[in-house]
């Protein structure tokens, strides 16, 4: 039997509806909407799309979202000046700096800029203070993508407590917070990376397998315990026809999409995994919509926290 497909769009819409009602209550109380400042440096085409989607989604649920654009030639001082202005703004409760940053800013730029965001406005939970709070299971927000994965599992009634969870990927923005969020929900968690020996065998132990690698269709059926839940975080643009033909059968919707657009997005999980897994998140329309929904929820959470409303029903 093919795997149950976990519907990121439907779950994302559910979360957005919840945020919308709380956002209206916040606006009533505060006399202004909860505000998100987004900093975009340069013109990375994928980032342009992500940022546009985030701003549109924020507006749709009654949040304020302002875009601060900087050219690809911006210096570190320019970016830090914008972050400092948002830190001091009374209209902005939450700050997001879109990654990746231009390479010209240097290898350590992301860390330096994330560290400069005021911890109480750090909507992604990337500041070291918030990472520490996450480790101790007392963070009010955690990174959007792994938080979205948790929502996907919980709202799809997939048990986490007691499950064996394997996370492939150990980045600060996905793999590590993912592992901690699963651990806090009482999964037994293994984190894998490029030096893991016999990766497929480790992955095969998982009741819940999360792939956050950045390699198209890397996770094949031999990684999967039959019936396992497989969550695909990967976003890999494919512009080469041979790869599309290898992954998707003739006449499939994905091949048609490729023929129309000349490129498609595929996940880290091979489509053949659907024949073995019990449940699986698709790419697109899996984790992606949840990342945006969790950004909205996190914006509201930090706004409520700053306004002293955390813990109150509305
Ligand atoms: P990243 O920082 O590049 O981390 C990739 C991780 O995968 C690293 O820990 C790396 O191991 C591991 N890895 C790479 N090759 C491997 C291999 N052959 N075997 C085992 N592990 C391997 O990427 P990221 O930012 O975490 O993102 C991962 C993927 O998720 C990307 O496709 C990204 O676009 C996507 N993403 C999606 C969303 C969403 O909203 N859906 C959000 C964020 C990211 P080492 O540490 O040993 O190098």
Topology record:
Blueprint: E1 4-5, H1 8-30, E2 35-41, H2 45-60, E3 64-70, H3 76-88, E4 94-97, H4 109-116, H5 128-135, H6 144-155, E5 164-168, H7 175-184, E6 188-192, H8 199-203, E7 208-211, E8 229-232, E9 236-238, H9 241-247, H10 253-261, E10 264-266, E11 279-280, H11 287-306
Parallel strand pairs: 1-11, 2-3, 2-4, 5-6, 5-7, 7-8, 8-11
Antiparallel strand pairs: 9-10
Helix pairs in contact: 1-11, 2-11, 6-7, 6-11
The structure holds NADP nicotinamide-adenine-dinucleotide phosphate (NAP).
Task: Describe the structure in your own words.
By secondary structure, the chain is α/β, with parallel strands linked by helices. Helix content is 42%, strand content 15%. It has helices at residues 8-30, 45-60, 76-88, 109-116, 128-135, 144-155, 175-184, 199-203, 241-247, 253-261, 287-306, and strands at 4-5, 35-41, 64-70, 94-97, 164-168, 188-192, 208-211, 229-232, 236-238, 264-266, 279-280. The strands form three sheets. A six-stranded parallel β-sheet has the order 1-11-8-7-5-6. Strands 3-2-4 form a three-stranded parallel β-sheet, with helices on both faces. Strands 9-10 form a two-stranded antiparallel sheet. β5 (164-168), α7 (175-184) and β6 (188-192) form a beta-alpha-beta unit. The longest helix has 23 residues, at 8-30. It is globular and about 55 Å long. 44% of the residues are buried. The model has no long low-confidence stretch (mean pLDDT 97). It binds NADP nicotinamide-adenine-dinucleotide phosphate (NAP).
């Amino acid at each position: 039997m093919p795997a149950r497909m976990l519907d990121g769009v439907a779950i994302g819409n559910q979360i957005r509806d919840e945020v919308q009602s709380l956002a209206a209550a916040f606006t009533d109380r505060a006399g202004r909407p909860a505000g998100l400042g987004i900093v975009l440096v340069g013109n990375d085409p994928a980032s342009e799309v992500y940022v546009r989607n985030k701003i549109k989604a924020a507006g749709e649920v009654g949040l304020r979202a302002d875009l601060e654009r900087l050219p690809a030639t911006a210096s570190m001082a320019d970016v830090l000046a914008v972050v400092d202005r948002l830190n001091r703004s009374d209209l902005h409760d939450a700050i997001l700096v879109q990654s990746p940053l231009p390479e010209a800013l240097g290898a350590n730029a992301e860390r330096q800029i994330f560290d400069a965001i005021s911890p109480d406005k750090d909507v992604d939970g990337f500041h070291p203070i918030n990472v520490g709070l996450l480790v101790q299971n007392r963070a009010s927000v955690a990174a959007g993508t792994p938080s979205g994965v948790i929502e996907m599992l919980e709202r799809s009634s997939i048990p986490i407590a007691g499950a064996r969870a394997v996370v492939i990927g150990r980045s600060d923005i996905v793999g590590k917070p993912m592992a901690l969020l699963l651990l806090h929900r009482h999964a037994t968690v293994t984190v894998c990376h490029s030096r893991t020996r016999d990766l497929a065998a480790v992955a095969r132990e998982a009741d819940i397998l999360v792939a956050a690698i950045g390699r198209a269709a890397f996770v094949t059926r031999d990684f999967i315990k039959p019936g396992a839940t497989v969550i695909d975080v990967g976003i890999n643009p494919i512009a080469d026809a041979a790869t599309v033909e290898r992954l998707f059968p003739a006449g499939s919707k994905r091949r048609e999409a490729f023929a129309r657009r000349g490129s498609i997005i595929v996940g880290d999980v091979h489509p053949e995994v659907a024949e073995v897994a019990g449940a699986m998140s698709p790419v697109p329309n899996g984790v992606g919509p949840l990342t945006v929904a969790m950004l909205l929820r996190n914006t509201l959470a930090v706004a409520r926290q700053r306004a002293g409303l955390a813990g109150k029903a509305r």
